[in-house]
DNA sequence: CTTCAGGAGTTACCTTGGTAACTACCTAGC
DNA sequence: GCTAGGTAGTTACCAAGGTAACTCCTGAAG
């Protein structure tokens, strides 16, 4: 991806937008909430640095991490033009994060002026929609075993190895696939007992 | 919504695109598959008449209906510009359906020429992304009781009445919230026994 | 060095809900 | 009128996994 959206703007354009107030930046500390569930979305936001997560929290406080976004990714792209422009989930900074905000009306002018910008934007929001679809496909209405297998198969392809580096804590993995940490722990242990995998803190290895 | 996308095109534009082959139509019979899971998406499609459903079918054949689309809605909008332009779920015609297909490259030309068309398109794909978000929010990782309550609360607001018309069969409702029909039946019976609701074939009434 | 917090593994207990096997309708076609 | 297919309701049985209450380990702060 690599900053396609910002790169499609010239320095002059950026400078002009910053000076006339249609672009402005904001900073968020670690663990602070960037957008609350239900908050209205009136700007397109581009992450300049840091990391945010989109998370659903249900009534009993259970957490599911739906997506993670880092530099050069956007927030709110799919909300700005929808009939109901409210953030449907909570967005929280995981690290100190700076975000550039672009007013909606200015955005439309940029689309007309700059085809590359529009193309990057469409590509980003399409990928975001795909992420949601994937969440449903991979983790919804499945047993934990199926969710784990789905995750491992995906990572095996990505990493092209049976020895899969888990670049997050087990707790985070449990939140990602939407189950309790203890249940994930139990199921991983079962799979190890059945000779399907081995694992430690950093790796899970699939045994053929 | 009302056909905003087609209405934003002039008759001349439509006629021109049809004659040069960048627009073309296709028909599908009831219960025929419009797109298979995994199929590549290379056109934007506009539903001219009929009804289609987006459904996820897991290995054991369980069905969950993710969304329903009717006339003037689009298919593939979020796929065309994404890095992985494969249909992530099966799309099936529920009624005899005709669909207009627009080649991707032509689409981009239309965006440049016609701002209203771009605006309609952005609005449609944003709404689609919102639908996916809602599915996750309302029905994922919940008990059947919570899913039912969520559905009833939503419909209560929509219909502005405690007596909620269910404009689908119980079987379809079960598919919508992603549970077995018998389990839905059991849970509704429990809720009736606890004095929370009454129901018959067409209505569910919430008792305050 | 000590303390404390957070990640991780384990397990008994129990709720949720999927499965399967019924029954009872209802409607369309013969 | 009779039969076949589709929708609904019911329930015994059982597997999956959430909950809670532990323990152990590690790393950072004091």
Main features:
homodimer; 208 residues; alpha+beta; Jelly Rolls; Arc Repressor Mutant, subunit A; 2 domains; four-stranded antiparallel β-sheet; 7 helices; 11 strands; 26% strand; elongated; DNA-binding
List the helices and strands and how they pair.
The structure is a homodimer of 208-residue chains.
Chain A: H1 4-7, H2 11-19, E1 23-28, E2 33-35, E3 43-49, E4 51-57, E5 63-70, E6 74-75, E7 90-93, E8 97-103, H3 104-113, H4 115-139, H5 144-159, E9 163-165, H6 170-177, H7 181-193, E10 197-199, E11 203-206
Antiparallel strand pairs in A: 1-8, 2-7, 3-6, 3-8, 4-5, 4-7, 9-11, 10-11
Helix pairs in contact in A: 3-4, 6-7
Chain A binds a DNA duplex (30 and 30 nucleotides) through α7.
- CATH architecture level-2 label of the largest domain in chain A: Sandwich
Strand order of the largest sheet of chain A: 1-8-3-6
DSSP helix count of chain A? 7
On the 0-100 scale, what is the average pLDDT of chain A?
91
Q: Please indicate the count of domains of chain A.
A: 2
**Helix share, percent of chain A:** 40-55%
Please name the CATH topology of the largest domain in chain A.
Answer: Jelly Rolls
Give the uncertain stretches of chain A in residue-range form.
none
* Beta-strand content bin of chain A: 25-35%
How does the overall form of chain A come out from the CA principal axes? elongated
Q: What is the string of helix and strand elements of chain A?
A: HHEEEEEEEEHHHEHHEE
Oligomer: homodimer
What's the number of extended β-strand segments of chain A? 11
Secondary structure class of chain A reads alpha+beta
Instruction: Specify which chain pair forms the largest interface.
Output: A-B, 39 and 39 residues
What is the CA-CA span between the terminal residues of chain A? 34 Å
Radius of gyration of chain A: 20 Å
Assigned CATH superfamily of the largest domain in chain A: Jelly Rolls
The major β-sheet of chain A equals:
4 strands, antiparallel
What is the CATH top level name of the largest domain in chain A? Answer: Mainly Beta
